[in-house]
Amino acid sequence: MQLPVQNVTSTLSAYSWRQTTNMSKSFWAFCCGALLFVASAGATGQPHLLGGPRDIDLNKDENAKDALTYAIQRHNTNTTDNYLSDVSQVLNAQSQVVAGMKYFITVQMVRTDCRKNRADEGCGPTDPPKNYQCTFVVWSRPWLNDIQLLKETCP
Fold this sequence. Notes:
Organism: Neogobius melanostomus
Number of helices: 2
Pfam family, one: Cystatin
Strand order of the largest sheet: 1-2-3-4-5
Protein name: Cystatin C (amyloid angiopathy and cerebral hemorrhage)
GO molecular function: cysteine-type endopeptidase inhibitor activity
Number of strands: 5
Keywords: Disulfide bond
């Protein structure tokens, strides 16, 4: 049994139209993905993962400063050293939007001449300075008045 020529032609046209439509959908999906990738490039021009950690400036982010202050307080409470430590330099700071904000902060620490039980405002570095590096991961949820030190890595 042979199909009439008009049915074959209309079947081929419908098939061809579906193929073109599927190719168009794929093309537009690719374009949208590429646009999102380009739009996700930071101010430095470096691409980053949407929802991933982003570099931040602690001088401009009060919540990040609070997270670092909290991490330093916890660090000083948890160490067995009788002297307080303080930040001498911020090496890297990033934030990530989660259920709240997660901060990844790497700092150069210095041991001060202030004893833990007699801390005053005039704490300076020991002579000679004892420097070490720490990385803190802090989770902040300000609307719940909640902040947690998730991880502390200090040699």
